[in-house]
Design goal:
heterotrimer, A alpha+beta (651), B mainly alpha (138), C alpha/beta (183), A: 651 residues, alpha+beta, six-stranded antiparallel sheet, C: 183 residues, alpha/beta, Glutaredoxin, 2 domains, five-stranded mixed sheet, two-stranded antiparallel ribbon, 7 strands, 40% helix
């Protein structure tokens, strides 16, 4: 019954999306008020129905209702409840339902709260949001129905891939989806503004919290995904430039650029066309990423249940939405005037550099990810991996960062170099000192070396805007910027330090042996078999000592799941402020010793701390913007009431 | 979607039934005694593709064949071979697919030309947007 | 403005090209096999110990004696290898000489495998660390190579040999023999 209820809710939601689409665009062209009044309620009810459908899916997974095909294929009654629930989106159909739900919720939210834009632009935006939504409803209902029944129901489910049976799954995909799909709101706003030719600073101010929100989720999702892969895959790597990772990085790059260009548009009414184009590209990257992952045309570790027919469906949607929006943009580009001008020595000038660099990195990542696909069409197979992506993206990333360090010090519109000269010289000297110091002291490779120097520069540069300002009165949005930029420096330092100073030790040890890796000593105390609800494992007891200090007892496991049959490595991690010890247990050798893999990864955790700081910065900026909006709205209400009172008095 | 991370179809670790029972090659899970040589080997292994896996380097895989490839790399490095010569040896056997480090060739030159073009384009855009606005910006 | 317009249409064209590529690749069968780049090259040098007691081992010099052969790369733990056993037998009966290379295998397991599924091989070398497999550019089991009489690799069949592949492999084997004689 629950499954049917969910399906009905989903169909009704789709119908309401249709209504919202007709009402939005119909009212735009016919100017019928009756139609216009329908758009917002349609969006709201649609959001509720979609949420209901998603709750239904969670329920059938929680109860392991094996008569639902999706549950039978992806769940198992012996799984812990949290992984049953998380399993609801650990598969193609469920994750698409999550996608649609997030999209409907976002649409409902704009319908409910956004009243600043011209009503016509708002109608066009709601219409566009519904139009995009309709395609994904159709995809869900016609080719990926999550509620399909299976008759007869099997006695037991197939289980979930063990690598997914982890808290990472509960957290990482939903966050990422909020990010991907949140960008659809920016997309709809942009399409709406293009249709009504209202690309104004006010439009940018309305759109900005949505971009910020989506961007915060994307940042968190990527950070979480990276950490998850790091501890789950068991080999100490945290970013592989795998096609699926790149698919999440590309929307992030576009959204980061969009965020900054929207700020320019909001503050200075410049970069209009560019902001609009980025708005189209950001969500396009989300959709292309989804296509690449679901269609299976690229080879990736993150293989989804692959289905070319679904691939064709998404490709048709891509063509419709991306192609349509781009053509609309080209046709209307002439009417989106260039906006205000500015000098090279200005905040805008620095932000343009940031935008161009981020867009170039986006192009490089897209190129490297898709290039194997292109050569394959000509019968040549190539691989493009870290040795390509690292230097080529650094080629654009490293020059961008010094500008990031200086940019926030500049005034809008026009500034003189003389005003910031002292800071710039100090920053450059700092970078050179770090460069030379690290080089002389440790002699690390060129990319990590540059990374550390630039990280120092960005770290100091990002807090300089606080100088001489009252910290208590500083707007939240500025705090957000400072924290996020500092996060970039922290993450970059973590990446550089890990790649420069990581130490690795692979060894076969007897019980009682002491293995040294960097400043750590690991003692293998024993190895015992253990069992869990749906797995059994070999578990080592490993005491880890940092520089002869107190030992920490850890238990890395080599786990074997039985449904589906697969082995995973549960690594042991000991975190210190200056890095992490990573220990994985391997197989037993013929002579009875145990394979241990140990890494000392200095400052590796800073990568994820940095990622979280970036997200926190985004959150602060979002709160800052929202509080300003709320205050403005309250003030406007007060003025209106006073006016009304005065009129009454005058009468 | 680093995602769904996964269904990391460790195609490699997949069906337990089809796993051999032989111990791994000596240098599959054992480092070279000389740290400099080991560092060379590790850097090379991180850029060689595991042929049995979906998209992993041989340094990140538990597949037996990845272990055998690591053994090849380490023993050859220990014998004094140049890392690039070892890469070349593998490319001769498996084509460019085995190396994550694309080399400039008839089929890959755009991979290198396009970023350079992008850099030029970026410089051009920045000059166009920023350079000449100096005056009218006043 | 005009330049911007041209740039934008170029962007639309690039996106269009990208989607055309996607559409084309969606229609293509996904090729998960990595082909050997050694076709047309002489066999690399190797000398493998016998994998079982009743067959000799295998060296590359054994394969340059003027006779074209099939080299079958297999393992007792490999399930598709069991499936292709009848086809190997059919090839042998059609006059092909087949030698084997057993990958990462124990002698007793190979012997047991041959007992159950038949032994079409005249020689079997044991490749315990896949060294020869790697030097041939083979990336899995089973695979079958056609080697001509001078020890040059002529053809590679990836995956198990199904009944429909037998004729092709025989044809390639004959071709290898003919080029040998012609040369």
């Amino acid at each position: 019954m629950i499954a049917e209820l969910g399906l009905v809710a989903l169909w009704l939601a789709a119908a309401l999306a249709g209504l919202q689409f007709l009402a939005g665009f119909g009212a735009l062209w016919t100017k019928m008020q009756g139609l216009a009044d329908l758009a917002r309620p349609a969006a709201l009810v649609q959001a509720l129905l979609c949420a209901l459908a998603f709750v239904c899916l969670l329920l059938v997974f929680a109860r392991t209702d094996l008569s639902v095909a999706l549950v039978a294929a992806n769940s198992h009654s012996a799984k812990p409840l949290i992984f049953k629930l998380a399993g609801a989106w650990g598969n193609h159909e469920g994750s698409m339902l999550l996608w649609v739900t997030v999209m409907a919720l976002a649409g409902g939210l704009i319908a409910a709260v956004e009243r600043r834009l011209l009503e016509r632009t708002m109608l066009a935006t709601l219409g566009a949001q519904a139009f995009v939504g309709l395609g994904f409803y159709a995809f869900l209902l016609f080719s990926s129905n999550p509620f399909e029944r299976l008759s007869p129901a099997p006695l037991e489910g197939n289980g979930l891939n063990p690598l997914l049976q982890d808290m990472g799954l509960a957290f990482h995909p939903p966050t990422l989806y909020f990010g991907y799909v949140g960008l659809s709101v920016a997309f709809s706003f942009v399409v709406g503004a293009l249709l009504t030719r209202q690309v104004t600073p006010e439009f940018a101010r309305v759109m900005r919290p949505w971009i910020l929100g989506a961007w915060v989720f994307l940042t968190l999702g990527i950070t979480a995904g990276s950490y998850w892969a790091y501890y789950e895959l068991g080999w100490g790597g945290w970013w592989f430039w795998d096609p699926v990772e790149n698919a999440s990085l590309m929307p992030w790059l576009a959204a980061t650029a969009l965020l900054h260009s929207a700020s320019v548009l909001a503050a200075r009414d410049a970069l209009r066309a560019w902001t609009v184009l980025l708005g189209v590209i950001a969500f396009s990257m989300s959709m292309i990423g989804t296509f690449l992952v679901r269609s299976g045309i690229l080879t990736s570790v993150h293989a989804f249940a692959v289905d070319p027919e679904r691939g064709s469906f998404i490709l048709a949607l891509l063509t419709l939405y991306i192609g349509g929006a781009l053509v609309l943009f080209v046709v209307r580009a002439g009417t989106v005037a260039e906006g205000e001008r500015f000098s090279v020595m200005s905040r805008e000038g620095a932000l343009v550099v940031n935008n161009v660099a981020l867009s170039a990195i986006l192009c490089v990542v897209l190129l490297g990810t898709l290039y194997p696909l292109l050569t394959e069409a000509f019968g040549v197979r190539v691989s493009v991996g870290p040795p390509y992506f690292n230097p080529v993206s650094a080629m654009f990333f490293l020059p961008m960062l010094p500008i990031l360090a200086v940019g926030p010090l500049l005034r809008w519109r026009r500034d003189s170099f003389a005003r910031v000269r002292a800071s710039v010289i100090a920053l450059v000297l700092l970078a050179l000192t770090v460069l030379l110091g690290v080089w002389l002291w440790a002699g690390v490779a060129i990319l990590p070396l540059l990374g550390m120097a630039v990280a120092a520069m960005v770290a100091v540069g990002s807090v300089l805007p606080l100088r001489g300002r009252s910290l208590r009165k500083l707007p939240l949005a500025v705090w957000g910027m400072v924290v996020a930029h500092l996060g970039v420096a922290v993450a970059l330092f973590g990446m550089a330090a890990d790649s420069a100073f990581q130490q690795e030790r692979l060894i076969a040890a007897n019980v009682g042996d002491v293995v040294e890796v960097g400043p750590w000593a690991a003692t293998l105390e024993g190895v015992v078999p253990v069992a869990g609800p749906n797995w059994q494992a070999i578990e080592a007891s490993l005491t880890l000592r940092y520089q002869g200090g107190d030992g920490t007892l850890t238990h890395p496991q080599a786990r074997a799941f039985w449904q589906p049959p697969q082995e995973t490595s549960e690594v042991a991690l000991v975190t210190r402020w200056n890095g992490q010890l990573y220990a994985a247990l391997g197989n037993q050798t013929e002579d009875g010793r145990w394979q241990l893999r140990l890494w000392w990864k200095p400052f590796v955790t800073w990568i994820w701390y940095g990622g979280m700081m970036i997200a926190l910065g985004g959150l602060l900026a979002l709160l800052g913007r929202l509080s300003v909006d709320v205050r403005r709205r309250l003030a406007a209400g007060k003025i209106a009431r006073r006016k009304a009172d005065e009129q009454v008095l005058a009468a | 979607m680093r995602v769904l991370l996964a269904l990391v179809a460790l195609i490699c670790a997949a069906p337990l039934a089809a796993q051999d029972t032989l111990p791994p090659a000596p240098y599959a899970y054992q480092q070279l005694a000389d740290p400099a040589q080991e560092a060379e080997a590790a850097a090379l292994m991180a850029t060689l593709r595991c042929l049995k896996c979906q998209s992993q380097s041989i340094a990140d895989s538990d597949a037996p064949m990845a272990g055998d490839m690591r053994h090849q790399v380490r023993t050859r490095i220990a014998a004094g071979e140049d890392p690039e010569a070892i890469r070349q040896w593998l490319v001769q056997r498996y084509g460019d697919y085995v190396s994550y480090q694309p080399r400039v060739s008839a089929s890959t030159w755009p991979l290198f030309a396009i970023p350079l073009l992008l850099a030029l384009l970026a410089a051009f855009i920045l000059r166009g947007r920023l350079g000449k606005r100096r005056e009218p910006g006043a | 403005m005009r330049r911007l317009r041209i740039f934008l249409w170029a962007l639309v064209a690039v996106v269009g090209g990208l989607f055309a590529l996607f559409a084309y690749q969606l229609g293509q069968p996904k090729d998960e096999f990595v082909e050997s780049a050694m076709i047309g090259e002489p066999l690399p040098a190797f000398d493998l110990r016998p994998a079982v007691g009743d067959r000799p081992g295998l060296a590359n010099t054994d394969l340059a004696d003027g006779r074209a052969r099939l080299v079958n790369i297999f393992a007792s733990w490999c399930i598709p290898c069991r499936v292709e056993a009848p086809q190997l037998e059919a090839l042998r009966q059609s006059g092909a000489e087949i030698v084997g290379i057993a990958i990462r295998d124990r002698p007793e397991d190979v012997a047991g495998f041959l007992q159950i599924y038949g032994n079409p091989f005249t020689a079997i070398g044991a490749d315990d660390i896949s060294a020869v497999q790697l030097s041939l550019g083979s990336s899995g089991v089973p695979e079958t190579f056609v080697i001509d009489g001078r020890g040059v690799i002529r053809y590679q069949h990836i995956g198990d040999i199904r009944p429909e592949h037998v004729q092709t492999i025989l044809y390639e084997l004959r071709e290898a023999e003919l080029t040998e004689r012609g040369a």
